Amino acid sequence: MPYLQLSTPCSEAEYPRFERALEDVGALAVTLQDAHLDQPDEQAIFEPGVGELPLWQQMTLTALFDAATDGLLLLAALEAFDPALDWSQARFERIEDQAWERAWLDSFQPMRFGTRTWIVPWNHPLPAEAGADAAIVRLDPGLAFGSGTHPTTALCLRWLDELASAGGLQGKAVLDFGCGSGILALAALKLGAASASGIDNDPQAITATADNAERNGVEIATFLPQDAPAGRYPVVVANILASALDALAETLAARTAPGGRLAMSGILAGQEEALLVRFAPWFDALQVAREDDWVRLDGIRNQAAVAA
């Protein structure tokens, strides 16, 4: 069924009032988008923590209404609900229905990372150039973060591929801290890891990881942080925000076995120096890799006493 779509600019400070007004007059859905797509502020909303709602300072707010809604009457109702709000830049458009949260999958194509790793949509044929030894991950990311299209995920996938090529993954247990869709744990298993576990604070990510593991014919033990059993792993990957990496430094150190390898991303260029200092007490041979505006750090757990 078609819809009437209303779009209007909105500031971070005004967003709650705009949202209340739209919901009061019957909006079926309200979505947000960075107003400055030519210079996006990815840090503002990239993978927020539980209970957090980080927003861009300037946004484009879009609301959907029943197709039979009269736009002029709708504007009058909005102005009456909160007369101080400015609806003068609101624009209307008639649009057809679609599976909104999955529409982007139409452009999701097989991608190669490193020598052997391929991320392939679950319903897409294998690419002809994938060799017999290719590590194929069939993925349906759904609403959880992690499809390989973001530089942070790509950086971690290439690190796993390189580690496998050097013989550092075979037979190892891997922890994917902040597993999202489970893409990194899946890649590790396909590249030769003996087992993989995933931890995420988003229940939706736990579900997505479990679904993708079943689709790939493998098992990934998944946990919310408070439910995760104690344990140390020879390989740990953490694709989360720099602020979360800083807060979780001792936890990640404790989760990495002495002599084990840790790779971290979700780090904007310019944030790596502080993290190098933060992780130096526990990790040696720390290295920096960069793609676009994003950074990956990786190092080797030293023999210092495991952090509490």
Automatic annotation (TrEMBL):
CDD domains: AdoMet_MTases. The keyword Cytoplasm applies. It catalyses: L-lysyl-[protein] + 3 S-adenosyl-L-methionine = N(6),N(6),N(6)-trimethyl-L-lysyl-[protein] + 3 S-adenosyl-L-homocysteine + 3 H(+). The keyword Nuclease does not apply. Keywords: Cytoplasm, Methyltransferase, Ribonucleoprotein, Ribosomal protein, S-adenosyl-L-methionine, Transferase. It is an enzyme of class 2 (transferase). Its EC number is 2.1.1.-. GO terms for cellular component: cytosol; ribosome. It is found in: Cytoplasm. GO terms for biological process: methylation. Belongs to the methyltransferase superfamily. PrmA family. HAMAP family: Methyltr_PrmA (MF_00735). Methylates ribosomal protein L11. This is Ribosomal protein L11 methyltransferase.
